[in-house]
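Example 4.3 (complexes with small molecules)
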Amino acid sequence: MSIYDTLNPVQQEAVFHTDGPLLILAGAGSGKTRVLTHRIAYLIEEKGVNPWNIMAITFTNKAADEMRERVDKLVGFGSESIWVATFHSTCVRILRRHIDFLGYDTNFTIYDSDDQKTLMRQVLKKLDLDPKMYKDRAMVSAVSAAKNDMISPEEMMRRAQRTEEYRQITVAKIYAEYQKQLKSNNALDFDDLLVKTVELFRENGEVLEYYQNRFRYIMVDEYQDTNTVQFQFIQLLARKYQNLCVVGDDDQSIYKFRGANISNILNFEQEFPDTRVIKLEQNYRSTQNILDAANEVIRHNKGRKEKKLWTDHGAGELVKFRQFDNGYDEAEAVVMDVLKLVNAGECSYKDCAVLYRTNAQSRAFEEACVSHNVPYRLIGGVNFYQRQEIKDILAYLKTIDNGADDLAVQRILNVPKRGIGQTSVGRVTAYADEHELSFFDALQAAEQIASLGKAAGKIRSFVNTIMVFRAQADYLPVHELIESVLETSGYLEELEANEEEEKALQRRENLEELISKAADYEDSAEAPTLSGFLEEVALVADIDSLDQNADRMILMTLHGAKGLEFPRVYLCGLEDGLFPSYMSIESDDASDLEEERRLCYVGITRAMEHLTLTAARLRTVRGETRYNMVSRFLQEIPPLLLDQKENLTYRQWSGYQDGKEEKRRKQESSVSSFGVGKAAGAGFGGSPSESFGTKTYGKPSPTAFDLPKKSPVTPASSIGKTFTVQKMDKLDYQVGDRVKHIKFGPGTVERIEDAKKDFEVTVNFDRCGVRSMFASFAKLKKI
Ligand SMILES: Nc1ncnc2c1ncn2[C@@H]1O[C@H](COP(=O)(O)OP(=O)(O)OP(=O)(O)O)[C@@H](O)[C@H]1O
Ligand SMILES: [Mg+2]
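Answer. The structure with magnesium ion bound is encoded below.
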């Protein structure tokens, strides 16, 4: 039996159609991605295509890895030379070789969204604009939208002048200045990566032809979410050979806010006139009930291509629906449900995914996981690389690697504190502007800036420190360079002196994690370099840290869940105002609500066997507590598909502690528009009669929080590569001894445990009770 026999006839047709443009349009779980991987195998094995000539574009690095892995299993050899990557990393690789044609240096820096905002604030200041009128975030979005639509600053200015609107003209000026600054920092933002590649292709026929010849077979997954500039990129590359296969589902287009352009699907056939269109109709992922629920919801969108999707998996169990008093109860119940199922041996943690609309919702789930000791992995949220200490050290590395990145240099100039203030920074900046120097070059000329006075000496010593690191960078591997930076710069010392014990510990753990990431990079890269490491870091979206093999429950936003599948899905926060969002409900543009509905469709269709929908009656968003109706999307699912039918119940309400019960009770009764009988009934166990009021959830037990030894971000591979926590060979105190801690004062040692990397010591402090800590941090003194 060949691998192609595992495909249905329509999927086979798509796999065997190798030459000429091909558009596969099909609903969720119909095997689009599977077709792509088999198609790659077929090209290599049956058509003798050189793997080197194949390019597959995926939406995330994670998806790229997975695709490579799957292809690896299908083809015996050569899969490593297939170019499987995201749009962004593809463009970086191209630009690193050729961007000098556009007047940039090939060791350019990539700015993330935080850097963009910082730069934008500088631009607004330089143009003397009121930051209240021109908000940095809004301006970054405006620039990004323009770039995604391939509108240059000049073009934006022309359009603005035609409207004669002052604000639009100002925005165009901001855009132009922002680009100018990026260029003088030798930096590109994420959108630039694509824009500059397209520019390069357009301006340099030779480069374009080289890549056209190289990528004779191009495949794009999640095509519905490509934006204009991405479409241009593909279109240019595929123009010569026309061997382009794109797969997508218009019902899963969820990135309009990033410029995703649904007309790319419609334009495809115009752009490539001989396109073969294939539709897949059998869903292999979900049960019939789950699929029906998804279809019923998406049916409410107008102007979509009607699709038939069926499965032979059988009806499966009904979709569960539960409503809770508030977000904490919701999280608590979901986590308890998972725990119960895992303990009963019905599934493992990694089979369960909690999906939500906004990152802010993750906190309650995290807390519940922590307090019940449920291992979890949070995808999205505060990205590891967005953490302060990580950004600081990366800024050091960038400065060492490429002094042209002004933002990086400014970030660390006074970190740790060197007594160099904002006034000095302003003077150096002015000097840099005047002499058209980078900020770092101006620092090097500090002695010539008379106004600096004494600060010049401090700046000199900073520059010297960087120079020493630069020399080290020539012979030290990246992870050792990081260690050196931490120690020599005084960063670690300051961290310990200023931060609270627990915070410092957490930060050190994160830094350790960065060191292990660098070591991992060195192990896996062919020719590891500092620039290479920084590049990899810049491209890693958080979704990429999702390691399917680790047994942890998954917490992620709906956007992050695209393309993935899980046996059990909890789709949470199904409330009008949260999902769909207020913005989309109140928007004049009906398509905003439709985009939310597509997101709901994406969420439902991630589930293979079990789907649970949850909602809270009270939800606190950004400090404001609101009383929300059950999501209209939930109401679009026919009751017969839900386990609670018309008798949907929620927990009995027992009042509030703030004396506003009456008012809220009244509001509460208005929820019955959903046909919800206000019966008693409850959580997943369905135990009736439980009744309670709002709870205040304090910080979970300190040991669970304070001791991240089972930290979800520390992979086993980091053990042995650590340096910050140096295990003491022996402790000069033992259980029962009285010891003193610099912050917590005197206490009695209750327990000492060997925690591999370090000793974990539990002390009962006279002033603040029991705390556990790592011995090497705690620096306890016997008294
Ligand atoms: N012919 C088939 N036989 C058995 N299993 C299949 C077949 N086709 C697809 N599958 C399985 O169905 C599931 C969904 O497939 P896949 O992820 O490729 O769908 P998709 O169309 O890309 O979904 P999405 O729209 O969510 O990205 C996978 O587990 C896949 O292995
Ligand atoms: Mg897919």
